[in-house]
Amino acid sequence: MKVRTQDVFETMHADLAHVDARVAQAATVDFPIVSSLVGEIVRAGGKRLRPLVLLLAGRGYHYHLEPLVTAAAGVELLHTASLIHDDNIDRAALRRGKATLNSKLSSGAVILVGDFLFAQSAMLAAATENTRVVAVFASTLGDICDGQLREMFDAHRLDQTREEYERRIFGKTASLFAGAAEMGAILGGAPESDIQALRDYGAHLGLAFQIMDDVLDLREDTAELGKPAGNDLRQGTVTLPTMLYAATLPAASSEADVLRAVVAGDRDDPAAIAEVVASIRSSGALVSATAVAQSYVERAKAHLLAVPDEETRDLLEQVADFALARST
Amino acid sequence: MKVRTQDVFETMHADLAHVDARVAQAATVDFPIVSSLVGEIVRAGGKRLRPLVLLLAGRGYHYHLEPLVTAAAGVELLHTASLIHDDNIDRAALRRGKATLNSKLSSGAVILVGDFLFAQSAMLAAATENTRVVAVFASTLGDICDGQLREMFDAHRLDQTREEYERRIFGKTASLFAGAAEMGAILGGAPESDIQALRDYGAHLGLAFQIMDDVLDLREDTAELGKPAGNDLRQGTVTLPTMLYAATLPAASSEADVLRAVVAGDRDDPAAIAEVVASIRSSGALVSATAVAQSYVERAKAHLLAVPDEETRDLLEQVADFALARST
Lengths: 328, 328
Fold this sequence. Notes:
Two copies of one chain form a homodimer. Chain A is mainly alpha-helical. Chain A is built from 16 helices and two strands. Chain A has a single domain, classed as Orthogonal Bundle (Farnesyl Diphosphate Synthase), CATH 1.10.600. A two-stranded antiparallel sheet of chain A has the order 1-2. In chain A, strand 1 (94-95) and strand 2 form a beta hairpin. The first copy, chain A, is globular, with a radius of gyration of 20 Å.
């Protein structure tokens, strides 16, 4: 790896601060209780990877900050709205170590707050006054819903194919990274082939990001994750590490029996979850899944060859590496 | 009233059929169970008043059917998505005499189906490739959420002002009629002052429509409504007829006590609801509220003077009259 002269988060810090300010402004609601809860969620928003990808995708071309910041704030709010509905659907009590809205508002209020943030994100997309950006934004929202419906209806089968898994995580996670990169490139005025290359970069980065998310859910402890470890298993959601682990088991084994019972929801006691988590950890499946994520990061980087500006290319590579190296 | 040579629903039947086809196409989901449930909801969609307003607002100018049908389908799906979330929030079991999604899918699936239809409606708005239409669409979604948040947090007070009530029903209902008229006028290429006049027509029509909805909830029986009568009271939601009724009661009266107990949610037994409904019916409050709706219909019609085409003006007047005359 070549020596890096600048860190991507440092380099982009000031521009991301503009995004944060726009997000905070759009997330203001007229009801003090709701507004302070939404403000907390938005401020707890982590690394702002999606806005970062959007800004950087524009940076290699004509870097007009104003429309890029507007679209980036829209993408971050779309992500936030989607997390709020997701946590409500999963009845999750914790995210990033903090209580979710579920523990503080009625389910109905949580749905409305999510809808409100969807509306705000759509207004930000519309404020770019770029019909193509708006079209990407709307179809990304469609992809996210498709991925979430697939997770709900299709993710509880141990016999799902890799294609089914990837289609699902593309919708749920990678579509927004792909859309963010595409919107940034469009707003930067990139040539058509570069727009497509950056979209592909985002898609592959997003797949790697979600695979690592699925690995971390099984590899890390609750304290590290800020939410209960083995959460996917507890929901009966079969992710890549679990699929790779299942493929190593003889059908007639006690390990396979426990796994099937957990995925079917017949067992959700802490002992059963802990047993499956321990077996997955010692099976090598987490290492294999990480290797799959690594290969997606490499493919993401390969799409960056199109980007003319070397410094921007290097910053986008760092984001891809971060997806793999992150621990929460 | 002048003799009408043509009925608005007959005149617009073929164009509304195009809207229906576009709505049905956009509401198709990849999961057979969900798709058939969503299809049922969409087909049960009533009179398509919002698409009708949108089409008619364009009809007086350049009537290019394609973008108008696209936007009208977007408006109808936005309305449907919003009803699905609303029913989920209210835990309603019936709408238009049919079981809601709540009785057939998990709460999480219902939220996702609503989100999916939001996404589809946003894609239709984007497909008009008109940035102003997209901006109206997005801000309308924001207004709807604002109205629903107000209904949740602010509607359970007997001392609310008329301004608070109207702001709330503007967001919840009138904003979409206003937005539909505005989008139709924009797509028809109407002059700026006509766009504003048609938006005002839609807003006043929508206020009348919601006031009549609130009247019908108290005036009609369960069989007629297709959902339990007195539903607003049961939810503790104070609407215009209830406000007008409350204003007639001495603070220290048994009627006022029962009303306060019902609105506070301290009593929700059928006897208490029936007692308040009967008192409101015999108080004259329904007649007074209908008169308020009538005055909004007149104000809606006054905004139509701007529309150059007499036939279109007549059709839009019929829609306004229908809002008042409807019985469900």
